[in-house]
Amino acid sequence: MAKLTYSDAGFALTKRFEGLRLTAYQDQVGVWTIGYGHTGREVHGGLVITQDQANLLLESDVAGAVACVNRAVTIPIAQCQFDAMVDFVFNLGCARLLGSTLLRYVNAGEFDRAAGQFPLWDHAGGVVVAGLLARRNAEVELFQSYKTQT
């Protein structure tokens, strides 16, 4: 089976929900962050990057999510489905996908049931987070767009 790469539509979704900050800032738990949610030892107070650098960091950061989805999905899927799943993994991590009913339904070819799993991942600390719900709903919309493609 061919391995997919992240499309422009996928990057647009991730960029939309991650937001862009070209100057380093500390996130809600004090982690230094820059670009589209990039963290690491090289990120520190006062660091400033360009738009091009932010794009390169995002491409590098998303590579792990791309590899995870390519390894985990065992049947052919549409590009839009792949993109939605990569954004899910980028946001939540590979382990969450690997142990999910979402993945089980995808690999069974039960795409409507799989789509219904995305919104279940809208909690943080036991509370529904509006931003997470919006992101999950956008992933569902992208995931299901294969139905309208010819």
List keywords for this structure.
150 residues; mainly alpha; Lysozyme; three-stranded antiparallel β-sheet; two-stranded antiparallel sheet; 5 strands; 53% helix; globular
What does it look like?
- The protein has helices at residues 8-18, 51-72, 79-92, 94-98, 101-107, 111-115, 130-144, and strands at residues 21-26, 32-35, 38-39, 123-124, 127-128.
- The chain has a single domain, classed as Lysozyme (Orthogonal Bundle).
- With 150 residues, it is mostly helical.
- The chain has a 3-stranded antiparallel beta sheet with strand order 1-2-3. A two-stranded antiparallel sheet has the order 4-5.
- A hairpin with a 5-residue loop joins β1 and β2 (32-35).
- α1 (8-18) packs parallel to α3, α2 crosses α3 (79-92) and α3 (79-92) runs antiparallel to α7.
- The chain starts with 7 loop residues before the first helix and ends in a 6-residue tail after the last helix.
- The model has no long low-confidence stretch (mean pLDDT 95).
- It contains 7 helices and 5 strands.
- 53% of the residues lie in helices and 11% in strands.
The CA-CA distance between the termini, in Å, is 21 Å
Strand content: 5-15%
**Biggest pleated-sheet summary:** 3 strands, antiparallel
The residue-averaged pLDDT reads 95
Sequence of secondary-structure elements? HEEEHHHHHEEH
How many structural domains are formed by the residues?
A: 1
Query: What structural class do you assign from the helix and strand content?
Result: mainly alpha
Q: What Rg is obtained from the alpha carbons, in whole angstroms? A: 16 Å
The CATH class name reads Mainly Alpha
Strand order of the largest sheet: 1-2-3
Query: How many strand elements?
Result: 5
Shape: globular
Count every helix, treating DSSP H or I runs of 4 or more residues as helices: 7
Question: Architecture, CATH level 2?
Answer: Orthogonal Bundle
- Unreliable sequence segments: none
Oligomer: single chain
Q: Helical content, roughly?
A: 40-55%
Task: Kindly identify the CATH topology.
Answer: Lysozyme
